[in-house]
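Aim 2 progress update. The chain analyzed this quarter is reproduced below.
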Amino acid sequence: MKKSLLNLLGPGILFAGAAIGVSHLVQSTRAGADFGFGLLWALLLVHIFKYPFFQFGPRYAAATGETLLDGYKKLGKGVLISYYILNFATMFTIQAAVTIVTASLAANLFGFSHDLVAWSLAIMLVSILFLGLGKYTLLDNLMKYIIAILTVSTIIAVAIALFKTEKGFSFQQIIPSGTAQVTFLIAFLGWMPAPLDISIWHSLWSVEKDKVTFEKIKPKQAIFDFNVGYIGALFLGVCFVMLGALVMYQSGESFSSKGATFASQLINLYTENLGEFSGIFIGAAAFTTMFSTTITTLDASPRAMEKSSSLLFSKKIKLNYWFWIILLTIGTYIILRYFLSDMVFLVRIATILSFLTAPFYAILNYILITGNHTPKKHRPEIGLRVLSLVGIVFLIGFSIWFLLSL
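Predicted structure tokens:
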């Protein structure tokens, strides 16, 4: 029974691996450090309102045996072309953001070089080797252990921080005001728990798991797998906000925009509570988590571009998985080599872009899962449909609020 449950968990854990990265290690800790517990409302709301659109990825894949990209084409070739252009325009910035955070942690952990661009290139090359040798199966298996290690270490750190803190703290919620605060809020929401296009990645991983295991996963099993990963991402998001609030809020210290310094501050969040001896273990856990995010994004974006290319161009133009991986690596390196000013700026740009494009994916996923292309018995019930419509209004409303505040 244990083995079957472990085998059942797959794409949902990959979702968690892709989600628990910059949004948690960077954005959530910064939210706690700058606002205390004041943005917990935003963390909870965005998880509630994004939930249906993420869930529709594995739901559609399990119900039809197809990816969301197949569904987008059925909605009209123009829809798939729009996704193709949008994904191409954003994937380099997203990859650069997760890779530079990983490189910052690597420089802090290993110490023999602080050249973050060199670290970034090395990490991407190792990731390519990893994907070439292990492919989906190794990615699937390793992610379960990575998430477990980070979860245990984070829970321990939060528990000790709660026990050791002598300062009072307030749960009064804060509505950000002013351009700087609203910009941070939108960036925080953009990748919390993840960009909405990860729903497409999830559907791709679901179809790939069916191929690897030679067993078609049932819709209820797919949704259970997703829920495990999603609830885990929410729980760890709250934990990282708590760490930032308990250790850094009103301490007079703020997170640096420089990658190596930020990584050191992040590790100190743990070592101040667990003791200096834990630094190497926590550093390794944080680095491994970000490394897993780097790998999953490096796998998923090319996988999505290969699939959409094949749907759009058929056999006329063959742009396979490895073509896109190499192109993504080169493009990411160029961004980091020539356009990187500081880590926080790059992360902010990537997360804001993700939030502003979220309504596009939310609307498409809703139309697809409630329409004729999804078998009637697998379409969402009325409660989830209502939540979806409210979620679309939420995403559009916050995007307009942000644009008006500029």
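The longest helix spans residues 116-164. The mean pLDDT is 84. These observations will guide the mutagenesis experiments scheduled for the next reporting period.
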